[in-house]
Amino acid sequence: MAELQFREAIRAAIDEEMSQDENIFVMGEEVAEYDGAYKVTEGLLDKYGSKRMIDTPISELGFAGIGVGAAMNGLRPVVEFMTFNFAVLAADQIINHASKAKYMTGGQVDIPIVFRGPNASAGQLSATHSVSYDSMYAHFPGLKVIYTSEPADAKGLLKSAIRDDNPVLFMESEQMYGLKGEVPDEDDFTIPIGKAKVKWEGSDVTVIAHGKMYHVATQAAKQLAKDGVEVEIIDPRTVKPLDMETIVKSIKKTNRCVIVDEAHPFGGFASEVGYLIQREAFDYMDAPVQRVTLPDTNAPFAKNLFDKWLPSAQQVIDAVNTVTYRK
Amino acid sequence: MAKKNKEAEEVTFTPSGTGIRNNGRIERSTELPSPTRKKHKSLGLSEDDLVDMFELMYLQRRFEERAMQMYQKGKFGGFLHLYMGQEAISTGTVYALNDDDDIITAYRDHGWGLVRGVSPKEGMAELYGKKTGCSKGKGGSMHFAKTENHFWGGYGIVGGHVPLGGGIAFANKYKQNDRVTACFLGDGAVDQGSLHETLNMSQNWGLPCIYAIENNGYAMGTAVHRHSVGELHERAKGYGMKSAVINGMDVFTVYEKMKEIAKDVRENSNPWLVEIRTYRYRGHSMSDPMKYRTKEELQEYEKLDPVERIKKYLLDEEIIGEDKVEEIENSVEDTVMEAIDFAEESDFPDEEALYEDMFVEDDYPFHT
User: What is the pLDDT of residue B14?
Assistant: First the structure.
């Protein structure tokens, strides 16, 4: 095992895959000469040259589409968005083209592309830089959506994403890039897309949390452990396809569930998983599923408002207390 | 000087009428550049080529005329955007390009499919939404495709396929395979930001791509000078890009110019912005009452009909006689009628097909 920062784990995944397949290239704003806006792609220009590390203008719609076209014609692009908040400008290419061209041509094209970059909020950046988009993209058929929480997952899943012959959205967080974690050294370490992981074992309540929210959930779990509440945390890692089997198995054991989601409440990951739990495990539930999400408001700038806006460990604790009837 | 009474002036936005230079007066929506004066031999086309070109153009015309009838009879649903009037562009282009050069277009794609190897049967079956269609009945009228012949398809979001064309060209340059991409778009797509972004990157990166605007005078019902300022091909100047404006009613002209341009793209790996002026005889789609243009304008263009033009050339130059023309027309008619029979007799896709072609793997766990 080696201890790597999140950004180093992502870089290692890209580097290892690029070294094995000439058709993989990286494209995005500031990925090459600048060494990456968040230094994820640092050093890769020196190693792979400007044919395979391509700086783009600030044209998300255009370069996302050029990536899709290149994927149709035999390449394997890794397209970086400086944040998925900017990828809204490229949504037509992701939603209307990457996810649909194979289907509407009767399977004549494959689109092996990865769109990656940070997702959701990164501190006080106000409304347009703070939205979590994993649930939105998971709504659309034809896309796989990954939002990991730890360096090992990031490396293993990004390698799988780059090898996948379908369009994959791979989400990160500006605030996690410096986070360190143990990453297996083994050659060709990969994690299959669509597999959740039980990261904390416990018997009192199942908490489902992915991406940055996983760390909020662990903070809450540590607090709750002091009170004797054993939390089981499941990190889905892949939002779509969703591994419900692991979630349901856990709920059959704990009979209680809290979902922590970085998206807004309407129609997000939490509401979808909540629905699935009542469908798949209704008879096993001892309390209604609770969720902790962003409020139905935009992200504010002011520190006090922002802190109130972002899901907190205390909210998770409160939700756990509700489902365990401890308050 | 007396202050102008601004309140008395009527505020207007979109210019009215057809021609912006003569606001409100009915004008031709586009001005056709002169066709080439060259004869087929000096263009490097054989007599057989000409006969084949005529047959291919007539096939596109009859295919759509019959498709229109079938649509009106309620034989199939969806949208039907007809290419009639623009056949010189598809035909001249495929003769100008190599067979492994790449073509991508928007939703007015029947002609493009037929010139790039979608058989009339596969095309008609696709219109009918049958499993034997070129896209297995999953794409319909707007999504003909034949990627094995380097026809990447028709795409239904205006301007959405333009970056895809750039990406296809990008991959060709990356692989250094000398293929040229021709990305066709309508005049309406010129106003989409996707074109601006793609042209900028294409010039900056030297992508081997011809962005060819089929300016048929109207973006749905909005005349070109009502939706776009200036001349469309002149937008190339902003990118320092090579450009041309071409008469799209004459197959020789399209062939001549596209061949020259493709040669330049192949040799120098640089993009072009080309405006090919043409005219669509039918409405934007089948539900279009065409109130935005005059009968006179339509009739004027029908006099320049590209299919009639090549037929007249064949006869005037005594390359073939009336009886041979009739034979070709009859044979095309038979082909189209056989295609209709084929489409009608073909099966709809199996129910399992709903979940096929979504992902590469066949065991994807679909959400339920």
Answer: 75
Residue of B nearest to A102 (CA): B357
CB contact under 8 A, B160 and A56: no
Per-domain residue ranges for chain B? 38-346
Selection from B357, B290, B286, B336 nearest residue B77 by Cα:
B286
* Confidence (pLDDT) at B24: 47
Residues A205 and A175 in one domain: no
Q: Is A216 on the interface with B (CB under 8 A)?
A: no
**Inter-chain CB proximity B160 and A97 less than 8 Å:** yes
Q: What is the dihedral of CA B50, B53, B55, B58, to 10 degrees?
A: -130
CATH number of the domain enclosing A64: 3.40.50.970
- Quick one: A70 and A170 in the same domain? yes
Which residue of the set A60, A150, A172, A232 is catalytic? A60
Quick one: average pLDDT of A65-74?
98
pLDDT < 50 stretches in chain B: 20, 22-26
Q: Does A61 touch chain B (CB under 8 A)?
A: yes
In whole angstroms, give the CA distance from residue A120 to residue A122.
7
A32 touches chain B (CB under 8 A): no
Number of domains composing chain A: 2
Instruction: Determine the average pLDDT of the residues in A282-297.
Output: 98
Contact A68/B360, CB-based, under 8 Å? no
What class does CATH assign to B38-346? alpha beta
Look at B197 and A63 and tell me if their CB atoms are within 8 Å: yes
Domain end residue (candidates: A145, A160, A183): A183
Is A78 an 8 Å CB contact of chain B? no
For residue A298, give the DSSP letter.
P
Tell me which residue range forms the domain holding A223: 197-323
For residues A222-235, average pLDDT:
98
Q: What is the pTM of this model?
A: 0.96
ipTM: 0.97
Instruction: Indicate if A129 and A234 belong to the same structural domain.
Output: no
pLDDT in the model for residue B20: 43
pLDDT score at B6 = 67
Listed residues A152, A183, A214: the one ending a domain: A183
Q: What is the pLDDT of residues B163-210, one digit of tens each?
A: 999 999 999 999 999 999 999 999 999 999 999 999 999 999 999 999
